[in-house]
Write a structure and sequence with these properties.
Strand content: under 5%
Order of helices and strands: HHHHH
Largest sheet: none
Shape: flat
Number of helices: 5
Oligomer: single chain
Number of strands: 0
Distance between the termini: 63 Å
Helix content: over 70%
Number of domains: 3
Radius of gyration: 21 Å
Bound molecules: fe (ii) ion
């Protein structure tokens, strides 16, 4: 299965990306080779992400269909814990930037739905008391 192959490749690719980031940080942007290495890393990360989004994640979505809601909640909770541990402003900006546009739209609709429900509940509560 393509998803399984992708999963096997994923860990060594993550390790290689982390190693390259560490090398770039160690050398600094003043190094003559920095830009070329940075661009190569960027191409590799884009390829990696494209593979994950087109192969791995759809496979996982099908295999874990009944658990997606629970997993989403756990991942969001963990993400918020990690955000709270780091610089709030920069991390929040980075977090927003990592969400696909569709996710932001869904979260916005969810926030609107929550506001609507709260207002409706408030209206019902006020209506009972008057
Ligand atoms: Fe990845």
């Amino acid at each position: 299965m393509a998803g399984d192959e992708r999963l096997v490749k994923s860990k060594p690719e993550h390790d290689a990306i982390r190693e390259e980031i560490a090398k770039l940080r160690a050398m600094g942007p003043q190094d003559a080779a920095y830009d070329a290495r940075f661009m190569q890393l960027m191409r590799e990360v884009m390829h990696h992400v494209a593979d994950e989004e087109t192969v791995l994640l759809p496979t996982a979505e099908r295999a874990l269909a009944s658990q997606l809601s629970e997993l989403g909640m756990r991942m969001t909770k963990r993400r918020m814990q990690l955000v709270a541990q780091h610089r709030p402003t920069a991390t929040a900006a980075n977090t927003v930037g990592t969400f696909p546009l569709a996710s932001l739209a869904v979260m916005s609709l969810g926030a609107l739905a929550i506001v609507h429900c709260l207002r409706a509940a408030d209206a019902r509560r006020v209506g009972r008391h008057t």
